[in-house]
Amino acid sequence: MRNTPRRIMARMRPLAAGLGLLLVGTSCNSFLDPHPTDTLTQTNFYRTAADAVAAVNAVYGQEQYLYLFFFYISDVAGDDVFATNNFGTDGHQLADYTFDKTLYWFENIWANSYTIIQRANIVVDRVPAITMDTTERARIVGEARFLRALAYFNLVRMYGDVPVLLHAGTTPQSGLIPRTPLDSVYKVIISDLQAAAPALPTSYSGADVGRATSGAALSLLAKVYLTQQQWTLAAQTAGQVISSGNYALYTTWFDNFRIANQYVSSNKENIFTINYASPTEAAGVLGSITTLFALPQGYPGGDAYGLMQVNPKLVNSFSPTDQRGNHGTIMISPYTDEHNTTTSWTVPALDHNGGAGAAFHKYLDEENTQNLTARSWEQQANGWIILRYADVLLMYAEAVNEGGTPTSISRDAALNMVRQRADPGVPSLIGLTQTDFRDSLRIERRKEFGYEGQRWFDMARWGVIDSVVRVKTTDLSILYPGETTPHGAPSNLFPIPLAEIQVNPKLTQNPGW
Amino acid sequence: MGRILRCLALLGAFAAARRAPAQQQLTDNTLSGPRFLYAESPTKTVAVDVSRTPALRRQLSLDLDGRSVKEALAIISTRAGMDIAYGSDAIPFNTVLHLKADGITVAAALTDVLADQPVDIVFSRDGRATIVKRDATKTLVATGVVSGHVTDAKGNDPVRHVIVRLEGTQFQASTNNEGAYRIPNVPPGTYAAVVRVVGYASARQTVVVKPDEETSADFTLVPVAVQLSEVVSIGYGTTTRRELTGAVSSVTSDQLTTTPIPQIDQALQGHAAGVQVTGSSGQPGAPAVIRIRGGNSIEAGNDPLYVIDGVPISTTTAQTSTNTHTLVTQGVTGLNPLDALNPDDIESIDILKDASATAIYGARAANGVILITTKKGRVGRPVVNISGYYGTAVVNKKLSVLNGTQFAEDANLARTNAGQQPLYTPAQVSAFGTGTNWENAIFRVAPVSNLNASVSGGSLDTRYFLSGNILDQYGVVLGTDMTRGAFRANLDQNFGSKFRMNSGVTLSREQSDVMPNGGNGEEVSSVILNALQANPTLPILNSGGTYNTQIDPANGRNMANPVAEARQITNVETQERVIGNVNMEWDLFQGLTLGNSLGVDFLNSLQDYYSPITTYPGLQDGGIGSRGQLQTTNWVEEPTLKYQTAWGPLTTINAVVGSTFQRSNTQNISGTAQGFVTDELGVNGLNNAQTFNGVFTGDPNSSLESYFGRLNTTLLDRYLFSVSGRSDGSSKFGPNNRYGFFPAGAVAWRVSQEPFIKQLHLFDDLKLRASYGRTGNQDIGNYLFLSTLQPSTYIFGGVKASGYAPNTLPNPNLKWETTDQFDAGFDVAVLHSRIAITADYYNKKTSNLLLSAPVPSTTGVTNQVENVGSVSNIGYELGINTVNLTGVVGWTTSLNLTWNKNKVLSLVNGDTIIIGPGTGIGNGANQNPTVLKVGQPVNSWYGYVYNGMQNGQPTYRTLTGGQSTSTGNAMQTIIGNAQPNYTGGLTNRFTAGPFGLTVFLTFSVGGHIYNINRSVLTANNGVGNQLTDVLSGAGQNGIPVAHTGNTFDTRPSTLFVEDGTFLRGKNIRLDFNVPSSWMRAIRMRHVDHVQVYVSAQNFFTVTKYSGFDPEVTEYATSPIAQGIDFGTYPQTRQFTFGLNAGF
Questions:
Q1: Which domains does chain A have, with CATH numbers?
Q2: CB distance B1 to B649 below 8 Å
């Protein structure tokens, strides 16, 4: 049947030629062949150094979408966040840990991660064939492998066994593959990071600041080892980052969250950050939503959605002198900002008795007038921090405490650097038992990284999700009667998105979902 | 028929290939031949210099062997393009000729034919030739007059504006308001006078014209409900209703212009069976949603193909961009492409419905084809027509919302119920009184005026029609309007006897101020929603006279002042359109015609948006503005070869083959900026804004290459066959499937022509029809089969960096959607054609739907456009036309009914349900009830089932049959759909003396409306204004008890599904045809006819729908989200006074 039209075409062509006396000379094939003039195609790209840079930039570009709502999973599903009435059904399901395999955000994270992997695979497949400066070419491939490793690391931590693709697919069928066992996924991640680290520079300058560095690759590798509980390798790799001398903590804790410090090479604390629209480059660049969604509704100066309330237990864990408390991670009503403007708010609540819950302050840069007063999406310049030096120090301390060999500073020194930077008055912790040190370290991680994309992964890594969820849901059911009933978590993993299983029957579901 | 016979005879002569020399030697001054004379004045003739007269020197090839003189003169007349008149007593016309000649001049041929006849040929000033007896030469210019009256069957009611023609000549005249006509300057002789007019059986009588005498010929016309000789356009040709095999509805200019609607798509409503037309909103210029035999497609569009005088027109005007803050998100939807056309320029609209009619348009025909034919000039003196109307419109209905005191009480109640302090003191509450009525503040009485003027006329070789139109329509919402200036020129020219050209051009410019409707979001404005929700205790203006945008104490936000938004937000669309065509035809042999049609459709569309800081959206952003421009050139060339012939008097063959080469080139650009230092420059100050949000540029191109053919035969005047096929190649499809073939066939049997039926004397016409065929739909974006790279941005070092990555997978197999359609129907006319019925059954199945199908995300993409899924449409259509009364009081009725059952048969990857597939419905933040479910119609809704109240909150039915206020364990199911069971139109026309009364009703039964407005207006949270239903209804019927923190329901449920059934008085019109005697009395003799009328549109509506109007569809361009009311511009009621006059 498929040939029929063509046969008829062929028969009619002579006739058309006869009529063609009246036509401008056009040959049939060129007349119909589309030549897109407003869009590029793969056939005329991946040829030059500029194409190679554009290809890897597109991997970073997709990271903005992955991390835009990442805190829904990493933090709302943790125990630091309660959903207010402004939050939609999805937020309440995450905060109450009552979601199921149909929740959109699991599909969102899954799909964005694989888009990143596909784009990174294109770089790994196509860039080596481009004639260009070899150092730069190796760097670009290294960036792609780092980003691919980061994507797989997120996937493997959230979903367990996941499909692994190391080359760019070209048909829908190329995606119809089963899950790869966890260990094999980790091998891919480690291999990518080990290859990326030597190919990447230690730092960048000018309009390249923010690309992946060797330090970023090593820090991520340390986290991979830590997650795998390979304490020696974790301590060794984190120690390598510490010993490099390339990184340091800001003296003042909040300085690392200031927008002005985000894009500068002088920032020694941030190791890898996902950047959103800068204050000067808003056009066509995605803005972040972390402040917009977290600030209390009615907070002056612009839109704020007030979706989240900070768990009172986290609020109460900060000592009054801790820089990470009020004006740091959180804000408490009435709140007086750096310009002496005082605001008070109530957490709007349908089914709770009023009163002001604390809100997240972490990304509100009160020095930056746009961040403070104009909060439309395009102007949100807050980056989303993936790795920072305080994390490396605490990873090192944890690895050493759990059995790794110290390769740089002591575990106590590493922990105290983080504690005392935030609260210089507190006495040093020295010589704790392994168990006491573990408890202190876990508390420290929670205080240091609240609303920063770490909490759920730490809980999963420590195997405490079920107990933490049990505590949180008990608190919720007391604070907000009717919100939920106390319950635990079905699994240390999230469900494989139902939509993916439906479209790829080779996928299996995680136990408990 | 005669022409076809002649063609056949001549062709036969060619086939004989015998070439005989002229039988007689001829010279111009042969005494036995006619003299060629020119009538300088009524009393003086001079000889014509034949050698210097091009019309007489034109060369013809003639085979007149065995022909009568009469036939020969007819042939020469046709071929020479010369009007030849004669009286039957001038010569013995039955003399048989023996003449065959190649390259003979017209003069020689006439001389030859009329040799030995005692006649002369006299030419008049306008080129007419009259054959007169030589002895009458001295009185040759003493012409006669034919005059008379044309009246209705009962003999009293005049039939106005019909043309009486002397057959075979160009002598004609039209009747005036008394039905009187007068044809002057007719050469003496015997003629057949003929009247053909829609609605009556044609009539003819013989008249004998004598010099200086007035011959009377009165006609009494018998009304019929169907005219079998009516010409119907079928695409690449025409046929008559008698010979039609397909399902084609025709709408005449009279029907179109009875209702004063300036857009032809809306004017089609209720006039054709199988064509469902729904007004989408009351916004001037808003498009109507047209579905021919239901919607076939889910994502590729359901709009029919529009072809104007052979030029397919583009229906894409809106900017498309996914950036935030673009024009689309502000409610800019693109002007209705059909706004460019002035309904007064339209002669007729033929709607092709079944596959046998549409398959000739192949891959674009699945949604039906609407052929629009414009008016052409006629031979004769210039005819000037002037028409115009003036009207005023008001909003059809207002909603009842709380007044100031009521609102304050409810706001206080919401707070006290939540344990909070009241917002207003008792003194304030009582002092508010009625407060501001925000609906009254935004609605107004809106004038509309429309003026048309046209002049047409022409000679035998050149005919013209020129028209101009000015429309000025205000909307009933402040700040909305539409203006149109349109010009149309048609020119038909003959070049000799074998070469013809028809051409036409429309130039038009429309500008429309569109009401902002960005939904219920926070950074957009919606005038209607804001007016309904605005706090009635607040004033429109501040004390200083500026618009009030102060903080509203009820919600803690700046006042979204609907009056300021309506007046101050610029939301203007302008489109300039040129639609032109040149069609050339060349008669190769008798019956064989080579044609070539060239068409162009050029569109320049500009869309401006600006929200100053005095309005809510601008306040948030320091002023925000966008400008977008789109320019499309769509050109088409269609060479055709047509052949028609006949065997005997009752068997005809009609064939056409041709090809289409079409290309569409578009360039568009749009840019958005915000943060303006001053509002003074509006959108023209984009480059001075602080933040440039982005610019979008596009350059999509597409082309179509097609070959088509059709063969129609009529055997013995009763067996009709039609086969057609089209091979379409489209640039939109993958290399593996670039060409599609679309065949169709039809048979029809005119049972009424069978002798055994004729004997019954029961049927004036009875025709059974059946057809089957395949059509396609290619209305998708360009390059979807390619893996294209999309730009990506990121920030390094505080600076923007650009990237590129593919965001689609290639799909080389991508092809058109395929619709297979079976149709069976009959046409019947009985009781002297006073009752005519057309009925059809159809069964359509559309498969290979172009759907965005989910693919494993592991490929890096989540969706790919694939050919999956299928939809069926099964329906019945019935059209009944009757002539109920004739005579002093005339009464005709026209009823059409359409039943259509639409069903999704399959979806992607075995899915049985896709929830919320309509993107952007409810503007993302509100309800999106749209669903696609196998077994359900497209445009179904999915949601929760309201199950009574509990603790002042609505509950929903749970899976176990209980009730729950949380939706966590509530059941979701299909809760309704927008598809009506049946729709129709009923027109009754009454005439009495000079008066006419037309009553036009439309109705739609069984559809539902999803009322998102209601969810916002019954949240009862003391924040925004509410329907007065919350006063008595709170705590019942789904309306929650007033309580701070109640949020408007974002969950689709049965609470917001309403019955959309309605019966509407679409138009009532009383016209008065001023008697000519009145005009003569006031010495206006040049006036041919004058008609004045008054009319009322939407003069009544019967519906249970609680919103503004049941004719509503906010997402008019979405194939799957019809029937949703969300801040939609309400429909209006209009009163109009109009006048038509001809000179």
A1: 18-79+98-199+486-513 (1.25.40.890), 201-275+387-462 (1.25.40.900), 276-382 (no CATH)
A2: yes
